[in-house]
Amino acid sequence: MSSSDPKPGPKPGPWPPTPESAAMPPSSWAKKTGFRPKFSGETTATDSSSGQLSLPVRAKQQETQPDLEAGQTRLRPPPSVSAAVTNGETDKDKKEKPPPPPPGSVAVPVKDQPVKRRRDSDGVVGRSNGPDGANGSGDPVRRPGRIEETVEVLPQSMDDDLVARNLHMKYGLRDTPGLVPIGFYGLQHYLSMLGSLILVPLVIVPAMGASHEEVANVVSTVLFVSGITTLLHTSFGSRLPLIQGPSFVFLAPALAIINSPEFQGLNGNNNFKHIMRELQGAIIIGSAFQAVLGYSGLMSLILRLVNPVVVAPTVAAVGLSFYSYGFPLVGKCLEIGVVQILLVIIFALYLRKISVLSHRIFLIYAVPLSLAITWAAAFLLTETGAYTYKGCDPNVPVSNVVSTHCRKYMTRMKYCRVDTSHALSSAPWFRFPYPLQWGVPLFNWKMAFVMCVVSVIASVDSVGSYHASSLLVASRPPTRGVVSRAIGLEGFTSVLAGLWGTGTGSTTLTENVHTIAVTKMGSRRVVELGACVLVIFSLVGKVGGFLASIPQVMVASLLCFMWAMFTALGLSNLRYSEAGSSRNIIIVGLSLFFSLSVPAYFQQYGISPNSNLSVPSYYQPYIVSSHGPFKSQYKGMNYVMNTLLSMSMVIAFIMAVILDNTVPGSKQERGVYVWSDSETATREPALAKDYELPFRVGRFFRWVKWVGI
To answer: Which residue intervals are annotated with compositional bias (Polar residues) in the record (predicted)?
Structure first.
């Protein structure tokens, strides 16, 4: 369009206009005259006969999206603004005066004002086009009640990915920082996920009746296997910077196997080794099934059924299912447990914006910092005699205590004192974890079948992590073949975990997404270096002994926070769908409710209020195989059905899959995961570089189309 002003049109008629002088729809006259608004999008106006003014407004506003770690909101510049900046011009230089509307309508001139985004005190982001505080549609915009802040957000689509990498991440997937940054960020990455790596073995191993030395050995083994499997995954799996470790998905089935009726007669060291060998056998079979699922390409078919509305309640149910374990154990020593919970909440929420050298130390290190402070306070209380009672020895088993006075304080001494564990003193300085260190695995078909079902749910959890992390660090989401390859490798690495005897499988930790978003570090080199350091630490027996000596109350307190985080991370997958849709709300609500209610029916069936159970109250949900409602002439089938239907994640997964794939809904409403395809990989070299196998290994498997790019 020429920069000269257009000829003035005829004068507007009388107001209100006569019916026969109705204005032409603005979209029509705008097209005829060549008028284009300042921002991309159609102009809207009402018919003049309605008595309203014709006012060009912007139809599509900038998008703002919430961040997991919150604190900043990133704005995506509109295309027209981006183009102006790219060409070295501004909107002011290219501004053109629009022609007047046709006769019968009145055009009100709108001053060119920069579009501003502001965040109110309640978190609402508004748009203002002028100094009067009104937006483009004439609606008033609320003024912020506090200092404005800029918020960075996680991308929700592939279109936002490039902007996210440039504005959100410090280093992308293939970036290689210097040696010092790699070392620093690698240590930071693993310290922020310390709780996810060590808390699972600290729950299941004592439940087997293991000694302090055996607990330390299992913790060292977990660190060793986690380092090895992470290196394998970043090299030959999804190639995303995701730490592998003992997932909470395996915790409930492991506790169910540990509390099986056939193991109740065992005691001491025999109990630990026998149960560990049974767990190893079940994990190996279930993980082999997962490997076949991935490498055979069947996972590509299952991906059609797995969407955010399925992933969200399934993962959230994993965290919610442990409500009966968390605080009941914290209550054993309230002054220590509650302080631990309060500290981690204060660090992760109230102090999350405090930065030291551009690093949010309280948000990143919330778990280790709160653990260190609480542990030091408990040590001082122990040394000053706060938990010392005359004539009572905390190292004597409760069953051997005769004095009534001492029996009264035995629980308090056991859970509040920090010197009751001898894991650090009994652990050797050097120990190399080796396969089959607990003996030859034992294979039981009923336990193996349970683990096969759990491996499918672990795959669903990993799929959500792949998609969310790829939008943060990679050029595009992976292809279905890459996802299948990654799931297959997770199955293989879980087989290694079964052979080494960690007590759980090794899968992608869901907390990876939160850690990447907080640390803004997406380089796979950082994760690989941290994995090497983890392997080195696992060879120092005292490291495992130190971690194994964390008091149980502190473990339970941290688990309360970790399980809450796990639940929230699961529900955050709904941001890829229309979370306000009544369809999705009902599906997620039904899945979550019945994931708690149905297992409660199985867990309470056949138990009278006055029954005297041989296990602590926080283990009662995992003994359902001995008294569940499913009863047939096949004891193995009874075990499988009662155990599976008493797990919240299984019920949530079944309901979400059925409802999401049978209830009508558009792809946009369901938030169907958009994976890259082979044509995109061929057209965009960046996608191939992100996910192709190293050392030209992929050339030998080009014929396997279903597990590659």
So the answer is: 41-53
Integer Cα distance of 127 and 134 in angstroms? 8
**Mean pLDDT by groups of 10 residues along the chain of 709 residues:** 49 52 46 43 38 39 42 44 43 48 48 42 40 44 41 46 53 83 85 85 88 91 95 92 92 90 70 90 95 90 92 94 88 91 94 84 89 92 85 69 73 84 87 92 93 94 91 87 93 95 91 85 90 93 91 91 92 91 95 94 77 67 82 88 93 96 92 85 82 78 68
Tokens of 334: 């309230």
Spatial contact of 566 and 323, defined as CB atoms under 8 Å apart: no
Q: Of 228, 230, 247, which Cα lies nearest the Cα of 286? A: 247
Asked if residues 171 and 177 have their Cβ atoms less than 8 Å apart, the reply is: yes
Instruction: Say if residues 401 and 410 touch (Cβ distance below 8 Å).
Output: yes
Distance CA 709, CA 701 (A): 10
**Distance in Å from the first CA to the final CA of the chain:** 46
> 228-248: buried (b, 16+ CB within 10 Å) or exposed (e) per residue?
bbbbbbbebbbbbbbbbbbbb
Q: For residues 515 and 304, give the distance between their C-alpha atoms in angstroms, rounded to a whole number.
A: 28
Radius of gyration of the chain (CA): 30
Beta-carbon contacts of residue 675 (< 8 Å; ≥ 6 apart): 303, 467, 477, 478, 479, 480, 483
Burial of 355 (0-12, 13-18, 19+ CB in 10 A): exposed
Closest Cα partner for 464 from 658, 358, 308? Answer: 308
Give CA–CA dist 565/517, Å, rounded.
14
